[in-house]
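Today's session is about reading a structure prediction critically. Students often jump straight to the picture, but the first step is always the sequence itself: look for stretches that repeat, for charged clusters, for runs of hydrophobic residues. Only then move on to the predicted structure, which in these notes is written as discrete structure tokens rather than atom positions. Here is the chain we will use throughout the hour.
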Amino acid sequence: MTAEDLSFPVQLRLRNAADYKKVFDNPFRSTDRYFTILAIANEGQYPRLGLAIAKKNIKKAVARNRIKRTVRESFRLKQHDLGNIDFVVLARRDAADADVSALRVSLEKHWQKITERLDSR
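Below is the predicted structure for this chain, in token form.
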């Protein structure tokens, strides 16, 4: 794979309220102590990612930004295995105190669970 194959271009992002609303309306959910990930199949040819890291749950901006960077990086590396699915990642309170390796392991399990579930439909 080239660096271009592992980029995170604009078309891999949920960018407007309508895209987020589709995911929030009737999603498949995957939850653990760090994240809740909502997902639906999309009509596109690639996965898309949206982040909803609430200030209510993660008080400090430094922690919110670390979580967002970790999620984007995990998604960027796994994008070719995810199929055509729209994801919205919500962080839970425990994610603020978790180290990056724990967050990565959690995300790997979520990506696996969701793709298995939505690909079987």
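Discussion point for the tutorial: Residues 30 and 109 are 9 Å apart (CA to CA).
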